[in-house]
Amino acid sequence: MTDPIPDRYAVIGNPIEQSKSPFIHTAFAQLTGQVMDYSKLFAPLDGFAAAVDAFRVSGGHGMNVTAPFKLDAFAYATHLAPSAQMAGAVNAMKFEGDKVYAENFDGVGLVRDLVCNLQCPLQGRRVLILGAGGATRGALLPLLAEQPAELVIVNRTVAKAQALATLAYQHQTGKVPVTGVGYEALQGVFDVVLNASSSSLTAELPPLPASVFGTGGLAYDLTYGKGLTPFLKLAQQAGVTHLADGVGMLAEQAAEAFAWWRGIRPDTAAVIHKLTVPLV
Ligand code: ATR
Question: Which residues line ligand 1 (CB under 6 A)?
Answer without folding.
Answer: 131-135, 155-157, 160, 197-199, 204, 206
